[in-house]
Amino acid sequence: MPNWLRHPFGQAAVIVVVAWLVVKFGIPLLPPLLGVESAPVPGSVALQYMLTICVGVLLWVSGNEERWRRFKEPIQRTMVDRDRRILRASLLVAVPLLVAFLTYDRVRPSLNAPPSFRAIHPAPPSQITFRGQTMELNGLVNPLRATGSLEAHYEEGKRVYYENCLACHGDALNGGGHYAPGFNPAPLNFQDVGTIAQLTESFVFWRIAKGGPGLPNEGGPWNSAMPVWENFLTEDEIWSVIIFLYEQTGHTPRTWEEVGAEGGEGEG
Fold first, then answer.
1. Residue closest to 165 by CA, chosen among 137, 190, 200
2. What is the pLDDT of residues 136-182, one digit of tens each?
3. What Cα–Cα distance (Å) separates residue 170 from each residue in 3, 163, 178, 256?
4. d(CA 210, CA 51)
5. Which domain-ending residue is among 107, 135, 163?
6. CB hemisphere CA count around 126 (13 angstroms)
7. Final residue of a structural domain among 56, 78, 107
8. How far apart are the C-alpha atoms of 120 and 116, rounded to whole Å?
């Protein structure tokens, strides 16, 4: 083993360098080995990791008086020994230049094209497939409003909502469920007049049935945690919960006559 690896300063330097390589390059290699998509480690996260590692290294070298003394030796010699004047002068020039370069690199104007702004509201498709069957969305109205008892549909929708939607969208339907703080973007606030009150029921059906994975590629990433509810709910259960949402919030869904008069589907 080289002598410098036996010295605490050399050991600390190796630990920091290896840790940086692991954080920067090793961690992104783990997801493919586990069969999931890889992503680079954000700079802020890497910085937090490295600060934690540096603190741990300092605690280790200072935990023993002899080790701490030996660790400081190269630093003290570089700062005061006459035979290290060239190294000392080089560091006095190199360190400020490095700090200046890093600062400039973070604040310099970018020549890259500005990122396209993500659309907040998806454009609805004209038709979808629901459990293998094609469903035309244009002109589609909630079929349960014309059959059976609206009160019975409301109660069924209430059951579906409290069994499946409560944890995210909340008891008050305001997006404040127990799981809501863990999501970004937050679950939709149905009480807001800018959400389902601006939509046709067929649009809401599409969003519930297809969830986050069913959002169009245009305007992504959407980052929606909404499940694909057609895998768990029947068509009538989705239409029932839609009735519950509108009745409970006091909103009235947009009609296709309103959509045609305004020239397009509402946003939501």
1. 190
2. 999 999 999 999 999 999 999 999 999 999 999 999 999 999 999 88
3. 63, 11, 7, 29
4. 43
5. 107
6. 0
7. 107
8. 12
DSSP 185: S
What is the maximal distance between C-alpha atoms in the chain?
96
Task: Give the tokens for residue 75.
Answer: 């630093």
Q: How many domains does the chain have?
A: 2
In the block, residue with structure tokens 């802020």: 44
107-116, 146-155, 209-218: which range is least confident on average? 107-116
User: How big is the chain, counted in residues?
Assistant: 268
Do the domain assignments include residue 122? no
Q: Is the same domain home to 18 and 73?
A: yes
Identify the CA nearest to 12 among candidates 74, 58, 79: 58
Q: Are residues 75 and 152 in the same domain?
A: no
